[in-house]
Design a protein that fits this description.
The structure is a single chain. The protein has 626 residues and is mostly helical. Among the domains are: 286-538, no CATH class; 554-625, no CATH class. It has 24 helices and 2 strands. It has a two-stranded antiparallel ribbon. Helix 3 (85-108) runs parallel beside helix 15 and helix 5 (138-156) runs antiparallel to helix 6 (163-194). The radius of gyration is 31 Å and the shape is globular. The model has no long low-confidence stretch (mean pLDDT 89).
């Protein structure tokens, strides 16, 4: 089955092409084609996983060569797929959660006239992400990387007849292109250093490369990861991306696009292992982002944007873990997997609430929904407990491992990185509890025309399946450290190191901060009345509510200087370059105008001129003869 893993990409890709070309005659049933295609990709991945589990750990990497992508010359690249524990983990997450989102979308997009096209884009997204994680070279990975960017642009701007949705899609596309420059630069540096772009050759030679070379490559790869995974300082697009349909938000945030950056860092572990400075920068960027996302999440009243800020923060935890090196690689992927379940479940829960509340996203207009949307409340609640890290739910087993690993090291690093991770846990408890209580508890703050009700089974069943994963998946994978051992052939064996604070103390501090954050949120947003209109707030609240003025900073630092530079160059071109050419042309034109006056067209004038000429010549001869 492993040799057929290419079908996992080919089936949804073919389905996307079919749905785009089928025309209106497929509108009535085309969405089911999309669901079947995603399900088939999952079955292919499941078969490959079962075959892999039957092999020895040392023999669990299989390369499937498809064709010669670039034959001959100095750059010879085969298009091939690498199936190993890391890639199969992503295959299962993408296809399983993706299929549930496809199923949910059947009901969510039921009344959209372009539902067939929407499912084509979903299938394209799945195929591109699978290509990204299965590629056996940076070059083929880049094709999947760009495919994910294209699909996200199409899905975020799916309702592009609204200006703000089209603007959000453009913003996501442009910011991600900035990150893509990093990947292009990294590939150039990799080829210059190793003469190849395939993983096997690059990773085999990486230990022999200089630290400076590996550091440069690592920083360029980090730039790419920051763009795709919405990490500081390229996180400004993520909140606006909520303009797309809610299933898109679940797909992007849980199982696909924003996890691509984490995958890129962990896949490139042999490069980062030889570049400790680049590794440290990855960890610092993760720490900054997890706190930044938490601050933003505490100030948002839009339920989807609050969840988006949460994703930014949780991906920050994963990047922090990836920056810790061998002791953190597996924990980063572990948290990525559990996060895929509880974040997808909460996004679909948010869509269920919006579906019942006339597409309202303002949590200040919710409240008391637990009585009329019991299934949504329970499934969302399990995701909420998981992201808080309450034992025994999934987040406890994955996020707390990152916090413990962050306290390992010497000097200032464990105190700063571990402290950031610890504080982030308390902040997560506050802003996610704020979201949960504002939506499902307290007094009803609905508009008179709202009649909340539970969603249909096509929406609630995927939510229930994801809720089961939110509750028990972490415990299952953590038992006996089976998941970290499964990834060891890729991430390497990590020697045990004691943190600077004992593990029981770290666990106690984490749970205490989670409890404090939850209680504070309950007192303010669960027990007390929530104002329907947002108060003005402090300077910090206003700053966080406006995403720390990221757009203003980007405009001031990048957009406006670029505009001024462009206008200056246009003026210089018009006045200096074109001006010199045009002035020369006008000079020759005036010379022509002047010389044209000598040509009158009158025979008598020409005869007189000739006579004058003859006389002049005669005089010259006579005078010269004298």
């Amino acid at each position: 089955m492993q040799s057929l893993i290419w079908l996992a990409i080919a089936i949804p890709l073919a389905s996307a092409a079919f749905l785009l070309l089928a025309g209106k005659r497929a509108d009535a049933w085309g969405h089911w084609v999309g669901v079947v295609a995603s399900s088939a990709a999952f079955l292919v991945g499941a078969g490959a996983l079962l075959e892999m589990l039957g092999q020895d750990a040392a023999n669990r990497a299989t390369t499937v060569t498809l064709w010669e992508f670039i034959p001959g010359s100095d750059l010879s690249v085969s298009a091939g797929l690498l199936l190993d524990p890391l890639s199969i983990t992503f295959v299962m997450l993408i296809t399983f959660v993706g299929t549930l989102i496809h199923l949910y979308s059947v009901a969510y997009m039921e009344h959209d006239v372009a539902r067939r096209r929407f499912f084509a884009y979903l299938n394209l997204f799945i195929a591109a992400m699978l290509l990204l994680v299965l590629a056996d070279s940076y070059l083929l990975l880049f094709f999947g990387w760009e495919g994910v960017g294209l699909a996200s642009y199409l899905l975020i701007g799916f309702w592009n007849f609204k200006d703000e949705y089209a603007t959000a899609a453009n913003k996501a596309f442009v910011v991600n292109r900035i990150g893509d420059i990093g990947l292009i630069i990294a590939m150039g540096m990799i080829f210059a250093a190793f003469g190849s772009l395939d993983f096997a050759t690059v990773f085999a030679q990486a230990p022999e490369a200089s630290t400076a070379t590996l550091t440069g490559i690592g920083l360029a790869l980090l730039l790419a990861a920051c763009g795709k995974s919405a990490q500081f300082p390229l996180q400004s697009w993520l909140g606006d991306a909520m303009a797309g349909p809610t299933p898109v938000s679940a797909l992007i945030h849980a199982a696909t696009m924003v996890t691509a950056g984490v995958y890129l860092i962990v896949r490139s572990a042999p490069i980062y292992n030889g570049a400790p400075d680049a590794q440290l920068v990855v960890a610092v960027v993760g720490a900054i982002t997890l706190l930044l996302g938490a601050f933003i999440g505490m100030a948002k009243d839009d339920i989807k944007k609050a969840l988006a800020a949460s994703t930014m923060s949780q991906i920050g935890y994963m990047m922090l873990a990836a920056g810790l090196g061998p002791i953190g690689y597996a924990f980063a992927i572990f948290h990525l997997v559990t996060h895929g379940f509880f974040k997808a479940g909460m996004f679909l829960g948010a869509g269920s609430v919006m579906h019942a509340m006339n597409d309202t996203v303002n949590m200040r207009r919710f409240g008391a929904l637990r009585g009329v949307m019991v299934i949504t409340w329970v499934t969302f609640g399990l995701g909420w407990l998981a992201i808080l890290g309450v034992p025994p739910f999934s987040g406890y087993w994955s996020k707390d491992k990152i916090i413990e690993a962050a306290f390992v090291g010497e000097g200032w690093q464990p105190w700063v990185l571990g402290g950031a991770a610890l504080v982030g846990a308390g902040m997560t408890a506050f802003y996610m509890s704020r979201l949960f209580f504002m939506t499902f508890h307290g007094k009803a703050r609905w508009e008179d025309d709202m009649h909340p009700h539970e969603s249909s089974a096509l929406m609630t069943v995927p939510m229930m399946i994801l809720a089961v994963g939110s509750a028990f998946l972490g415990l299952f994978l953590a038992t006996g450290d089976k998941f970290t051992h499964f990834l060891e052939p890729v991430t390497g064996h990590a020697e045990h190191h004691d943190p600077v604070i004992s593990i029981p103390v770290i666990i106690g501090l984490t749970l205490a901060l989670v409890a404090v954050g939850t209680v504070l949120a309950w007192m303010r947003y669960g027990r007390a009345d929530v104002p329907v209109e947002a108060p003005a707030g402090s300077l910090g609240t206003i700053t966080a509510r406006n995403d720390f003025f990221q757009d203003s900073v980007n405009r001031a630092v990048f957009q406006r200087p670029g505009q001024h530079l462009t206008r200056t160059l246009v003026y210089a071109d018009a006045t200096i370059v074109d001006g010199a050419v045009n002035k020369q042309a006008r000079g020759w034109a005036r010379l022509g105008e002047a010389s044209r006056k000598l040509q009158t067209g009158q025979a008598r004038s020409y005869a007189a001129t000739m006579l004058v000429g003859v006389i002049v010549i005669a005089l010259i001869i006579v005078v010269g003869g004298l």
